[in-house]
Amino acid sequence: MKNGLGSGLYLILLSVFLGAVGQVLLKMGANRLDIRSGPLFEVLPQLILQMLKNPLILGGLLFFGVSSLIWIVSVSKVQLSMAYPLVSLGYVIVLFASWAFLGEAVNLIRVGGVLVICFGVVMVAQS
């Protein structure tokens, strides 16, 4: 394990942020799909073609790919047992991004859950 805790943490946060952006883009793209019912062998090829033509879905996949590459570099610098709990910050980012960009409702129970997650992340970071 290399001694790159500071830069590793920044990379983890960047990876988590990019992954959350990818989630929001995928959801925005999925909202534009024309999903029809029918036999899977008939519906799936059309659905895949729609996805391949959808810039939001392609952008979401790109963000996930870059996030994964950054994650690999970051865990080479930080202990996995410390890095992985920080992934839960993605829930926080997605909650507020879903509210801001998708118009999803955010109630007190969800906010309370996010506060519990944040508390857990702080505990892990202090260890």
Chart the SSEs and their pairings.
Blueprint: H1 5-30, H2 40-52, H3 55-75, H4 80-86, H5 89-102, H6 108-126
Description:
With 127 residues, this protein is an all-alpha fold. The chain has one domain. The chain has six helices and no strands.
Helix amount, in percent?
over 70%
Helix/sheet category: mainly alpha
Rg (CA only)? 18 Å
Number of domains: 1
Q: Regions with pLDDT < 50 over 5+ consecutive residues? A: none
Largest sheet: none
Order of helices and strands: HHHHHH
In short:
The protein has 127 residues and is an all-alpha fold. The protein has helices at 5-30, 40-52, 55-75, 80-86, 89-102, 108-126. The radius of gyration is 18 Å and the shape is globular.
